[in-house]
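Reopening this ticket.

The earlier resolution said the output was attached, but the attachment link was broken on my side. Pasting everything inline this time so it's all in one place.
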Amino acid sequence: MPLCYSRICNMFRKILFAIFSTGTLLHAVSAPAPYGPVPTRQQVDWLRMEWYAFVHFGLNTYTNREWGYGDESPKLFAPSQFDAEAIVRTFKGAGMSGMIYTAKHHDGFCTWPTKSTSHNIKQAPWKDGKGDVVKEFADACRKHDFAFGTYLSPWDRNCADYGKKGYLKVYYKQIRELLTKYGPIFEIWFDGAMGGDGYYGGARQNRNIGKADTYYNYEKVVRDIRKLQPDCIIWGAAGRGDVTWGGSEKGFVKYPLWNTPGNKWLSLEGDTPINHRGWFWHPGQASAVKSPAHLMDVYMASVGRGANLILNLAPNRDGQLDAADVTSLEAFGRMRRALLAKDYALGAQVQPSEVRGNAAKFAGDKLTDGDLESYWCPEDGTKTPSAEIRLSSPATFDVVRLREQIRLGQRVESFKVEAFVNGQWQVIVEPGTAGQVEKGFDLRGGKGHTIGHQVMRWLKQPVTTDLLRLTITSAKACPCITEFSLLRMPGDEQVASVADGSETEVALSSQGWTYSGFVADVAPLAFDGKPATMWEIKRTPSHFVVDMQREQTVCGFAYLPRQDGKTQGMTSRYRVELSLDGQNWQKVAEGEFGNLRANPVEQFISFPSAKARYFRFFSTAALDGTGSSVAEMKIFTPVVK
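Inline output:
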């Protein structure tokens, strides 16, 4: 009996030793400690949404403006065929995960029956003043299991109290209404517009609020939102929110992308309209829609760099989405689905250089198991591990996607990927080095810098292999990699073409034109097709006159602000006049080029077609002091079909 007991004890000790030494008991090996700031649960859920819609629809839709002045009549708002459900179905059908609606833009018009101001939808003829656009979108989203968010401009060019303490009561009431009357809000947007000239109840003044964080008291705003809707992601709020601007309204973010610029996690969002004409609908915009291929570039330069993408589609004056915009959106949606349809690395065998505690829960196969929560991880002191990935059969791919387990923080600084081709290792993603920054849409053949939530590297050429190697070349702490995927970008044959023939206007040739007005000798530089050159003068207001040499039918123009990185003297307000004889002039357009500091891109202005030989452009106001400039200008004529 004693002998039997002794043998049993010895056997039990050996079994325990084997279990703990191999890491078979999962609780025997602990996860790495979090490194640096980590995202909240809400930020992780938000990042997994990837892309969703922005919807700009309000009085600007009817005034052909981007930034309303604040004196527009609510009676203009009269959509005859608005169907929120149809719009939501379009978004969801394209693969989007939600939408954010501009409940109030800078003009101050509230598209819900707010009690904070009389400048709201109750004054509009639509539905006899009983309409509520916010409610219709929120209800449609809820019905179709689609996330709903809202945009509320901090700037209000209509409110008489803007810039004073009294406005804060108005602003806070609007926030509370939007967050308590329309169900769950997944994201609320506060952009950075911080005052300027406006109607302000008839005062027609220029009001400067100083620091937005101080005037709006965003510390209080964020605190109140957390109480009202704890799961709501906050965009902006002077950096106190959860998400910040990606840096360009063209949709791209810079890479490498760090979500930890300070003592908290801050996600990024790329934003852009689907149409080159702007955020709101404008006449003649069907010819300016971005192609599905361009939208894929936007997607890869935002989502593919670790941010989210918010893509704007604007209803027209009837309340319907522009057909050309929808055609491109749907084609891009098919293209995106094709890209993500097959992960050639899913289920692949992985041989890592090291596994944390030899524990199964940190093993290399977690890279290819399709689970975004599981991850491969080495020991704490190891910052440059590697792993070989063996596919079940050779595959052809041109996109490599990686993800970190960001619940433990962002760690990786650079990585490389190699493929075994023709009997030797070839580097297909080179490791990034300090100081390298990708901007814009320079996407093919990008380096391996940060990973974060995800990074997609688009190879210059497709690669065919069944063996790859991932090497982390630099990290701030032991890497925790949750995914290694191989994808194939769809070819043109997999994407339905966007119907052509919707073009309604084209630019006139400037050959043979002559110029007069201020510094007329350099006015041709505004029509030379070279953004680096420009018409510029150190005075405001100023103007130039274009003699087109013969009578033309004119229906609009495009203005490109200076592209040299400077804002001083950038034309911000304009007036355009036409003439048949150079003596008698008719004003056809007047307004503001909005948001030039953040988005110095081409601006398109349409007006009713008119006969003219002479085109006179006035720069009536400019940014940062006296001056006027135009980098490029086009004059449009209608297409005769």
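Reporter confirms the inline version is readable. The first strand starts at residue 51 and ends at 55. Residues 1-5, 14-26, 492-503 have pLDDT under 50 and may be disordered.
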